[in-house]
Inverse folding.
């Protein structure tokens, strides 16, 4: 086998492997989206029907209470809860993450390395392992079935990660930029806000997306700590489609699509910030 | 008026003292260069003047004000950083005008000053570009432009040329000198390159290990180094330093060879004193290949180990008393390694340092 043929075979094999991996990743998502547009009867049909024969928006109509044969599930309330909880916890986690990340990147203080390590170690504890203690404490201080209860949990979950990510981005910005700004007449805060923040924007945006998605998608803790439409989030709401003997797969898929859409939109909106390298050219090159 | 005065300035990091009570008076419009090897405290000193480092003890004054507790923004100084520190998300125009905007100047003033600086530095064509679209030299000019637009009391330069290639460095060095002549402001310039220091400075401050070793004009520091450190640091190639003993009016080297004690230093040494004999390569020249006739010269026959032709001169590596020494051949001819030449030694330019303290024996 000559070299160019071997190269071609290698390229095809790589392509096939990549395609296979993408199929494995994408098929469940695709199945959910397709199922959202098909009648429930078609879901478990044998042989399976891949493409819906009569695609319709009935499942979406039903979950919003417009269908004749379905008790409405309070999707708008869940959606609002999810949005409030995810956005609030993300904003708080970002504020803390920015302050913490900046402090770790720029200042020298006692126990800095130990603190940083502690924050990272806290990420190694599976959230579900904490569900019982959190439940016990929250039930004593009245935070069960309250949005604030979930917000606090999500902030705690997200802060170590946002600090770690934002710290890395601030470290990439030479400290001379901030010093130059201070010599140019800025206060430390102005130097941060006008120079370092815009340069770290991509990192902060990435941290924000990750924090938002973690909160938006989280199920295990939310299912423990929420009870009613006061605080139930969309992922927990998915369980409303299960009854004692039946599961409304189509309705559940329609709701899953509703869960996916905001996350997709958000990622799409901020994707340009995810591309790093904004600091190129400011320093020697 | 912007004199800068450092009065017994000390800098400590924890328990480690890195700058040990330095004193320095910089006159209005003076160009002072702090020079020294890495870790000598020159950049720390500059950063203390800028306000980017707190001082642990002592006082720094700019103009008539003690600025110890003033943040950088209130010191009315500008600084050019080694890595330029241009704001990458702003155009050249925005970079130049940033300080003026922060100071809330009118747009008209900002535009006028930015255009003025751009004209001085030849940046007119580049105003709408971002730093990423500029070459190293252009970025350096923008950094200088950012410094001059604010009409500060003093410019601080922190090794501004060390990221440029050799040719550009020479060009920018000239530009910095021209700029100083044009804007006439006090300049404190930090470098580890003694050539930059010699060519730019009104006065050189040679630093080592957090101490000032010598302050003086470039020629003063070159011609009258106070100790062996300054003697070897300033000048390229460095001064030859050879251990010897004073015996019977002779400088006797370790191999027994000797030279007469330079006449002007005869009164400064004592019989039996251990000394270091210092001689610049320019003052060790093959007979007939010196720059000028020396009034007080001696001769020595030496073997050439290696020669480095530079065009107008050739550097000759030889050995005196088992120590490597360098000489220069002006108006050079081909020299083959191993060739034996007779060298003129300009004794009136020679230096003697006390071997124990390293300090020059000259008392003046």
């Amino acid at each position: 086998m000559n070299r160019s043929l071997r190269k071609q075979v290698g390229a095809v094999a790589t392509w096939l492997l990549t395609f296979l991996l993408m199929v494995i990743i994408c098929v469940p998502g695709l199945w959910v989206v397709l199922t959202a547009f098909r009648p429930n009867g078609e879901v478990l049909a044998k042989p399976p029907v891949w493409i819906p024969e009569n695609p319709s928006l009935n499942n979406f109509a039903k979950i919003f209470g417009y269908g004749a044969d379905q008790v409405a599930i309070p999707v708008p309330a869940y959606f609002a809860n999810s949005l409030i909880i995810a956005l609030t916890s993300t904003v708080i986690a970002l504020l803390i993450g920015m302050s913490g990340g900046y402090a770790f990147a720029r200042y020298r203080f006692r126990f800095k390395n130990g603190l940083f390590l502690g924050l990272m170690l806290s990420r190694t504890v599976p959230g579900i392992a904490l569900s019982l203690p959190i439940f016990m404490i929250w039930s004593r201080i009245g935070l069960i079935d309250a949005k604030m209860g979930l917000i606090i949990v999500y902030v705690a979950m997200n802060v170590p990660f946002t600090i770690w990510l934002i710290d890395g981005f601030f470290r990439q910005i030479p400290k001379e930029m901030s010093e130059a700004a201070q010599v140019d007449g800025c206060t430390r805060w102005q130097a941060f806000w006008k120079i370092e923040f815009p340069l770290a924007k991509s990192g902060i945006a990435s941290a924000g997306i990750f924090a938002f998605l973690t909160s938006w998608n989280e199920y295990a803790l939310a299912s423990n700590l929420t009870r009613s439409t006061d605080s139930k989030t969309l992922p927990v709401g998915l369980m409303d489609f299960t009854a004692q003997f039946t599961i409304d797969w189509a309705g559940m898929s329609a709701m899953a699509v509703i869960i996916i859409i905001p996350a997709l939109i958000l990622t799409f909106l901020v994707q340009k910030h995810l591309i790093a390298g904004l600091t190129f050219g400011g320093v020697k090159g | 008026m912007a004199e800068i005065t450092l009065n017994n300035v000390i800098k400590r990091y924890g328990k480690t003292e890195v700058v040990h009570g330095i004193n320095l008076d910089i006159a209005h419009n003076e160009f002072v260069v702090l020079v020294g090897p890495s870790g000598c405290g020159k950049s720390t000193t500059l950063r203390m003047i800028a306000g980017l480092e707190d001082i642990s003890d002592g006082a720094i004054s700019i103009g008539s004000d003690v600025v110890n507790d003033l943040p950088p923004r209130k010191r009315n100084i500008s600084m050019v950083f080694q890595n330029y520190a241009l704001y990458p998300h702003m155009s050249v125009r925005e970079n130049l005008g940033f300080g003026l905007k922060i100071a809330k100047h009118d747009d008209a003033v900002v535009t006028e000053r930015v255009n003025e600086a751009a004209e001085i530095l030849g940046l007119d064509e580049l105003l709408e570009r971002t730093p990423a679209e500029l070459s190293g030299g252009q970025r350096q000019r923008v950094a200088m432009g950012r410094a001059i637009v604010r009409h500060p009391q003093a410019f601080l330069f922190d090794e501004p040329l060390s990221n440029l290639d050799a040719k550009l460095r020479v060009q920018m060095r000239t530009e910095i000198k021209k700029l100083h002549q044009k804007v006439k402001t006090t300049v404190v310039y930090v470098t580890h390159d003694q050539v930059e220091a010699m060519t730019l400075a009104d006065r050189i401050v040679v630093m080592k290990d957090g101490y000032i070793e010598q302050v003086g004009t470039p020629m003063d520091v070159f011609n009258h180094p106070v100790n062996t450190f300054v003697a070897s640091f300033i000048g390229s190639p460095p001064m030859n330093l050879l251990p010897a003993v004073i015996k019977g009016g002779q400088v006797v080297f370790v191999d027994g060879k000797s030279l007469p004690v330079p006449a002007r230093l005869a009164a400064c040494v004592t019989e039996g004193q251990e000394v270091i004999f210092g001689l610049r390569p320019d003052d060790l020249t093959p007979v007939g290949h010196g720059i000028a006739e020396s009034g007080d010269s001696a001769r020595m026959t030496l073997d050439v180990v290696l020669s480095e032709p530079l065009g107008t001169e050739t550097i000759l590596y030889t050995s005196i008393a088992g120590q490597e020494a360098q000489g220069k051949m002006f108006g050079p001819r081909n020299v083959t390694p191993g060739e034996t030449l007779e060298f003129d030694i300009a004794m009136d330019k020679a230096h003697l340092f006390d071997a124990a303290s390293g300090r020059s024996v000259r008392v003046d």
